[in-house]
């Protein structure tokens, strides 16, 4: 058991795979377990879950810099990105980073838009020739950070995927047109939670293509019959929630939103850059470290990592410690 930032985690030593699957706090795990137990006893009714959905929605907004009324809920990043892709004019020119996660890029290609891949660092210079820039704030494969200041200055509509950033990187993304993110990685929530924050102008032009009862102006009176009567705010884009996933997110996300962001950033990047220094590499300022090393020595040493783009990917989060750094260094010595 480890303690970090006032929470406890039943995370094993050497667990450096948060970029794939985050480990919940004991508080989050307990909340989900108790909800499942109530389900098993027939003790819950659907309206019970409205509060955790609202709590998690508002907390995601605080984490990325958006009011709750401009945050929609979904189940996956790709499903929410697809709403943006479907709202662009036919044949829109979309600029993306080469090697970015396909849940961000595939929806635009599937819609038939003109999607251009360029190196991550070239995005700001190439943005002016496009209708939208879609990019991950932090690259999944290797942890590189997008130049957000330069993208903002480019003056082109932007969709940011904060999945690999929210939870360790301080974010103020109120300037972006759309910000999407999922909960099961760095936000340490169950899989089945995702959110889309929209600027006021972007919300007005995002089509509610998954319109359903939960996207209604009052979900408990829009269960049956026409006419269409959707919510006036971002809830019009909502997907019916994965109930127990939001129970966990309603514990995890407010906790994240309450933390000292500078302290979280210093802890996570300090460990990652400490590993880089031990390997003779320069600091990168990212919580993700990508190494061109064989994975077998790490696996034998009890290090949980992943392989992405042919390299070992290590992710340092709140529950990571200097012992994890040393374990990797010993394995690779």
Overview of this protein structure:
- The protein has 333 residues and is of the alpha/beta class.
- The chain contains eleven helices and twelve strands.
- Strand 11 and strand 12 (311-315) form a beta hairpin.
- A seven-stranded mixed beta sheet has the order 3-9-8-7-6-4-5, sandwiched between helices. Strands 10-12-11 form a three-stranded antiparallel beta sheet, with helices on one face. The chain has a two-stranded antiparallel sheet with strand order 1-2.
- The radius of gyration is 20 Å and the shape is globular.
Query: What structural class should be given to the helix and strand makeup?
Result: alpha/beta
- Number of separate domains: 2
Q: How much is the average pLDDT?
A: 97
CATH homologous superfamily annotation of the largest domain: Type I PLP-dependent aspartate aminotransferase-like (Major domain)
Range of helix content: 25-40%
Question: In order across it, which strands form the biggest sheet?
Answer: 3-9-8-7-6-4-5
Count of DSSP strands: 12
Order of helices and strands: EEHHEHEHEHEHEEEHHHEHEEH
Strand content: 15-25%
CATH architecture of the largest domain: 3-Layer(aba) Sandwich
Global outline: globular
Q: Count the DSSP helices.
A: 11
Distance between the termini: 27 Å
**Residue ranges: pLDDT <50 for 5 or more in a row?**
none
């Amino acid at each position: 058991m480890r303690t970090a930032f006032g929470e406890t985690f039943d995370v094993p030593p050497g667990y450096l795979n948060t970029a794939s699957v985050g480990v919940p706090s004991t508080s989050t795990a307990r909340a989900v377990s108790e909800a499942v137990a109530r389900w098993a006893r027939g003790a819950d009714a659907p309206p019970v879950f409205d509060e955790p959905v609202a709590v998690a929605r508002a907390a995601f907004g605080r984490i990325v810099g958006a009011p709750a009324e401009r945050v929609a809920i979904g189940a996956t990043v790709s499903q929410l990105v697809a709403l943006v892709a479907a709202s662009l004019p036919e044949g829109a020119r979309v600029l993306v980073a080469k090697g970015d996660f396909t849940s961000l890029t595939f929806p635009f290609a599937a819609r038939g838009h003109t999607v251009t891949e360029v190196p991550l660092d070239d995005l700001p210079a190439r943005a002016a020739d496009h209708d939208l820039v879609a990019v991950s704030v932090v690259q999944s494969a290797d942890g590189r950070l997008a130049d957000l200041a330069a993208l903002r200055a480019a003056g082109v509509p932007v969709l940011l995927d904060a999945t690999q950033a929210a939870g360790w990187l301080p974010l103020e993304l109120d300037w972006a047109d759309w910000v999407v993110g999922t909960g099961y990685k760095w936000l340490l929530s169950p899989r089945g939670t995702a959110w889309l924050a929209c600027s006021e102008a972007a919300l007005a032009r995002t089509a509610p293509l998954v319109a359903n009862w939960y996207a209604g102006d009052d979900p408990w009176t829009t269960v049956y019959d026409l006419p269409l009567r959707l919510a006036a705010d971002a809830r019009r884009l909502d997907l019916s929630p994965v109930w127990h996933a939001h129970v966990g997110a309603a514990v995890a996300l407010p906790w994240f939103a309450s933390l000292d962001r500078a302290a979280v950033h210093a802890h996570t990047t300090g460990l990652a850059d400490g590993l880089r220094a031990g390997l003779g590499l320069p600091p990168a300022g990212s919580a993700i470290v990508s190494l061109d090393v064989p994975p077998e020595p790490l696996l034998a040493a009890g290090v949980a990592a992943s392989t992405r783009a042919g390299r070992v990917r290590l992710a340092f989060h709140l529950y990571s410690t200097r012992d994890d750094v040393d374990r990797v260094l010993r394995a690779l010595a």
